[in-house]
Amino acid sequence: MSSSGVYSNEIHERGNKTLADAHLQEAYQSSTIRLYTHRLQAMSEVPGWERLRDRARELKREVMEHLDSYLEEFADNVARRSGKVHWAATADDACRIVLEIAKQCGAKEIVKAKSMVGEEIELNPALEAQGIHPYETDLGEFIIQLAGERPAHIVAPAMHLTRHDVSDLFATHIQSERTDVPERLTAIARQVLRERFARAEMGMSGANFLVADTGTVVLIENEGNIRLCTTAPRVHVVVVGIEKLIPRFADLGVFLRLLGRSGTGQSLTSYTSLLTGPRRPGEDGPDEMHVVLVDNGRVNALADPKMREALFCIRCGACLNACPVYRKIGGHAYGWVYSGPIGALITPQFTGIGKARELPFASSLCGACRDVCPVKINIPDLLLYLRGRAQEEAPAPRPKGALLREKTMMRLWAWAMSRPWAYQIGGRMARWGQGILARSGWIRKVPMYPASRWTEARDLPALARKSFHDRWKQIS
Amino acid sequence: MTKLRVALFVTCLGDQFFPQVGECVVKVLRRLNAEVTFNPAQTCCGQPAFNTGYRDEARVVAAKVLNLFDDADYVVAPSGSCTSMVRVFYPELFLDDPDRLRKCRQLQARFFEFSEFLVNVLKIEDVGAAFPHRVTYHDSCHLLSELHIEQQPRTLLRNVRGIDFVEMQGYKVCCGFGGTFAVKFPEVSAAMGQDKLRLASETHAEYLVANDSGCLMHLAGMIHRQGLPLKTMHLAEVLAQE
Fold first, then answer.
1. Contact state of B186 with A456 under an 8 Å Cβ cutoff
2. pTM for the whole thing?
């Protein structure tokens, strides 16, 4: 499992591997159902839940419609509080900026809080290439850093690993005793991390929200590692996507009520940090605070009035927990950083449709994701839209067992379906043709695509001897 | 009182694979004193192309549907999927064509899924059916998630004489059909279907009932491949039983 590059178009093979692994199936099934259940419980405690969702969606729309002015307002307020703002158009820009800051403060070791954007820009390899050691401090990220893997879930990066897997990883990489007691494993990680927090010259975090009217960076967590990363080292660097803005401090309540409950079923996480600039005289905290605002494809998504909605996402992970497809194929099948329904939307947007053209099709469009999204992103609708874009901009090669390209098949299909006489003749020909294949009303195997793919997994009923069109003559 | 003129949209899957579903819809509607018409020029709503990202091809087929039912008071389809296509997605196809968009709106106002039509329009919850068997019900995703039709099928089933209606345990979840998803991701589709069949089997129902031929084809196909004792049936077929 490598942690760079985009492998989204390999979703079929990767997904099938996960399907065949009973171990992984159990891990994903139990974890997602547990989080889904916790969310249901938590939302039932909030009588105005639907109004909160509507409000959050409205607020995010407001931000996206005026992102440029909110970004400027945020940047001005950060500077007013002695923070430094940096603008990164691409992943490379963002890495370069972080490296520059690290060089300036002489940082050889960096403690990192969990950041999906950090994964997106492939920051760790860029740091390591310059002899700087980035240490993940979120327990799940700590674990997958040892495994050399990407996160398997937006909120729970090591969801796919059991405590036995973790014990093996710890034994191999940090020479700790083998144990399958979760408290012991956590204590082992804590000891390693404690030393790193104390030594690191620089701490890096993402951000859950950026408040435009105060210049505040908002971070939520359960472990306390974010507190340590953002306050113990001398320099704090925030790497964050530009879409994380919210307009006003007064709006924060709406989002905080939605995020914990949607993601893990918690009314609030253990720690909520509101960081506005570096420490002021007499305070504890970092001397320097930098905010690296990352575009990396977000402005392109913004420019598309349809896809703009995907930027409302507050990264709660609820859509992953609700998705029956994610539950089966797991996070790594999506081949990049973001998985599940939101991953299927933003991966093509951020990496280019060609690199991830298969993702929008990896959905039965069941709508479970839309039902749980705290900002009411109409995910199935956006997936359908991306399917159209994929067929236009990155058409698929001819499927296995197909005589024609998919586009050609669809053209023929549309031609026949818009001519009742052709439709009828097609039906008669199919009835004639199925004679050799059908046994007692069922067909076991069809050599030609797409029916061939159907019969891989199930039998196909034979066409009825008389269609309803034929029968109507008797019953009309 | 003049009879209601109800046009049947039988659906392409229904027409070719499950004509008995269309016949049952006709039977029930006639029992309820509606005049049922069938325009033989109908073929498909266009969803297979739309679902796969081929909007132009979907539009060609959908445009034909706009002109099929001008004479009918209502159009009824035994399918949440096709009904969603017309009521939710058709406008997107005709946004740039004001004439077609107008016809589209006129069609949408009259187009109903079968159980929705019975309960919401005809205000009938008991169609006089009898079916003394244990039955469980699967909510197809378009019906549930796009059209929010959840209670109507259950109300109709519960009023069937002799029926033993049992809900599946656990959360409502997709069966894995998903239209072209079933052939693009057959392994995942089958794994999801397997979960659904397990939940259905655990109810010890004889029959698994749903409102969509796509879901039923997928589940019945898996049942037949594995030789399971469960039987599938469309809601219309249950309601036509006497």
1. yes
2. 0.96
